């Protein structure tokens, strides 16, 4: 049975737990003598002025056909890009335009991204970064067999996302992507909350394959190392959990903080002549 689930997590305690979970893993960090290289690909999109959301909205008109006008597509075959960080979106467009990301249906994007300048990519990324990602649905069917028997399907993904698996060298996903899946716009770790489950699972499978055409595969290799120990069930469960992960606390707080409707004022007494 499937139910809509609002899986919001916030607070200092959760942030501390994320750091501890990440620190307890055996994943080897990037050595200091091998910094992430940004040129030549990100030399274009990373050294420009921040994108202009207003200009990006006009330039993103073609994106709406697949991804929706606000970055929330009607069909699950297309990823959500609403709420995605500007730099991450711009980098993905640059990778596709340069022929360095070729998986899935990205070939269909070539006619749209190849004419774009680096500033266009930043502007489009800035526009979608201002949009709110839609709510997802997590699968809470009970797993019937295997090591996760008795757990709800999304709970398998939740366990890995929040705590990882130190014994297998899997870090807690939220250490980089945040407890609500909001990502980190600084190092351009992507926003994942509410993303379509099938898309998440497919991307994890691509990382697990260990094959990429990126000229600078540093970031790809980090995710390839994380994804390598995952089973197919775990990748799908992570997708399910992330599909239902979104922070709606701001909406609830806004509703609670809204002022009560003003009481009707009594009518003024009629004046006698």
Outline the structure in words.
The protein is mainly alpha-helical. It has a single domain (2-27, 37-250), classed as Cytochrome c-like domain (Cytochrome Bc1 Complex, Chain D, domain 2), CATH 1.10.760. It has 13 helices and 2 strands, in the order E-H-H-H-H-H-H-H-E-H-H-H-H-H-H. The chain has helices at residues 12-23, 41-45, 53-59, 64-67, 86-97, 110-113, 118-129, 153-163, 174-177, 197-209, 218-227, 232-243, 249-257; strands spanning 2-3, 138-139. A two-stranded antiparallel sheet has the order 1-2. It is globular, with a radius of gyration of 22 Å. The model is unreliable at 2-41 (pLDDT under 50).
Q: What's the number of structural domains?
A: 1
The CATH topology assignment is Cytochrome Bc1 Complex, Chain D, domain 2
Please list the strands of the largest sheet in the order they lie side by side. Answer: 1-2
CATH hierarchy: architecture = Orthogonal Bundle
Q: Which percent range fits the helix content?
A: 40-55%
Number of helices: 13
Task: Reconstruct the topology from this structure.
Elements: E1 2-3, H1 12-23, H2 41-45, H3 53-59, H4 64-67, H5 86-97, H6 110-113, H7 118-129, E2 138-139, H8 153-163, H9 174-177, H10 197-209, H11 218-227, H12 232-243, H13 249-257
Antiparallel strand pairs: 1-2
Keywords: Electron transport, Heme, Iron, Metal-binding, Signal, Transport
Region (Disordered): 250-273
Protein name: Cytochrome C
